[in-house]
Specification:
Layout lengths: L6 H16 L5 H4 L2 H21 L2 H27 L5 H26 L2
Helix pairs in contact: 1-3, 1-5, 3-4, 4-5
Length: about 120
C-alpha cells in the first residue's frame, strides 16, 4: 500500500478523475473515439506508475521512459480535443497544468534513477 502513496500516482489519479468528470460534456461522437483514448491513456499512466513502484531500480528507469511517451500522447490528445472544439480551452488549461506537473515529477524520478 505504501507504493500508492507516491505523489505522481496521486496526481495521475486526480487527473483521471478530472478527465472522467469532463466526459459528460463531451459530444457523444467524440466520447467514444477521442475521449475514450484520452481516458484510456490516463488509466495506462496510472497503472504504469503503480507497476513502476514495484519494479527493481534497474527496470524502473526503462518503464518510466515509456511512461513519459504516454504523458506526451495524453498532451497531444488534449490539444487535439481543443483544436477540434471537443473541449473548451478554459477546461483544457487546468488539465495541461496537471500534466505538466506530472511530467516534471516523472522527469525528476527518471533523473534520480539515472544518477544512482
Amino acid at each position: 500500500m505504501q507504493q500508492l502513496d507516491i505523489p505522481i500516482i496521486t496526481k495521475t489519479y486526480e487527473l483521471y478523475r478530472a478527465l472522467h468528470d469532463l466526459q459528460k460534456g463531451i459530444p457523444k461522437m467524440e466520447r467514444y473515439s477521442l475521449w475514450s483514448r484520452v481516458e484510456a491513456t490516463a488509466l495506462q499512466m496510472l497503472e504504469g506508475f503503480v507497476h513502476a513502484g514495484y519494479l527493481p531500480c534497474e527496470q524502473r528507469a526503462q518503464k518510466l521512459t515509456r511512461l513519459a511517451a504516454e504523458v506526451d500522447m495524453l498532451r497531444m490528445f488534449i490539444r487535439l480535443a481543443v483544436d477540434i472544439k471537443v473541449l473548451p480551452l478554459k477546461k483544457a488549461v487546468p488539465l495541461q497544468e496537471r500534466l505538466d506537473e506530472i511530467g516534471r515529477m516523472l522527469g525528476g524520478w527518471i533523473k534520480s534513477l539515472r544518477q544512482r
